[in-house]
């Protein structure tokens, strides 16, 4: 079995009589990106705070291991293995980027010379060398986030918690953050990512868990999650009306558009179902002019799982999303 960077069983947390996490299980293999998705207030930040030792779980909860260490009996060892960048940045705007880095080096008790070297290397890696001597308050949002992550890396953490790292960033800065996250993982770091952007989880995460009503409503790869909701289909387009009519006869149950000469055959996007469509075309001696596979996107999954909660904006906000009746999965 792959070693787990994070293993939680029955993680519970209440604030007073408000139950936020109702015994969730998490298993994050080393060197992977795990994304926790959920609407506002679902408990994502609470989970990050608990896993990073900033908040105690409820005593009745199960075992939690982070970086191979027991969170309750060995929180110091957990802290030594992790880095956290939250929604509220650790960057001090009154001092320069370089001074922020050197402060972190001091906190990690690095010898002066090594601290300066590590700071310079990380500032370089995150494209902040030119701005290093300027007060961090003059940095753009993207530069501050990069500095924040660079500061987290001073301690060489093996596991990094990124709580909504791209919220409020413009598309270019968001893409540059994605690149940074990919490079971290390529270097063996494990990333626990919370995000409001479904596209972000889709882009980055090896596995995604959707948090809803205190529980994990579904977990899997982006592709596995997309297969949980209806809406996938293979679209066949024709230019010749006679061929189109032949296809209509061959695919009795497909929905049809006689004007555009297209057929939509329900499909989960799997290889097996795609082959069945191709086999049926072949045996009817029909060749489509265009064949495209449409799988539901993570938005569909999210809305299905969280009962249509409109709290999570997609990357390109979709305020006019039509109400689509969707089945809850679990
Ligand atoms: N210290 C606290 N005391 C009482 N309730 C709290 C506290 N912190 C969080 N909560 C509540 O717990 C729930 C989960 O909050 P949390 O911040 O973990 O959600 P989230 O999924 O991170 O939300 P967001 O996407 O808005 O950041 C919310 O209803 C919140 O109001």
TrEMBL record:
<feature type="region of interest" description="Disordered">
    <location>
        <begin position="310"/>
        <end position="330"/>
    </location>
</feature>
<keyword id="KW-0067">ATP-binding</keyword>
<keyword id="KW-0547">Nucleotide-binding</keyword>
<dbReference type="GO" id="GO:0005524">
    <property type="term" value="F:ATP binding"/>
</dbReference>
<feature type="domain" description="ABC transporter">
    <location>
        <begin position="6"/>
        <end position="238"/>
    </location>
</feature>
<dbReference type="InterPro" id="IPR003439">
    <property type="entry name" value="ABC_transporter-like_ATP-bd"/>
</dbReference>
<dbReference type="Pfam" id="PF00005">
    <property type="entry name" value="ABC_tran"/>
</dbReference>
<keyword id="KW-0046">Antibiotic resistance</keyword>
<feature type="compositionally biased region" description="Basic and acidic residues">
    <location>
        <begin position="318"/>
        <end position="330"/>
    </location>
</feature>
<dbReference type="InterPro" id="IPR003593">
    <property type="entry name" value="AAA+_ATPase"/>
</dbReference>
<keyword id="KW-0813">Transport</keyword>
<dbReference type="InterPro" id="IPR050763">
    <property type="entry name" value="ABC_transporter_ATP-binding"/>
</dbReference>
<protein>
    <submittedName>
        <fullName>ATP-binding cassette domain-containing protein</fullName>
    </submittedName>
</protein>
<dbReference type="InterPro" id="IPR017871">
    <property type="entry name" value="ABC_transporter-like_CS"/>
</dbReference>
<dbReference type="InterPro" id="IPR027417">
    <property type="entry name" value="P-loop_NTPase"/>
</dbReference>
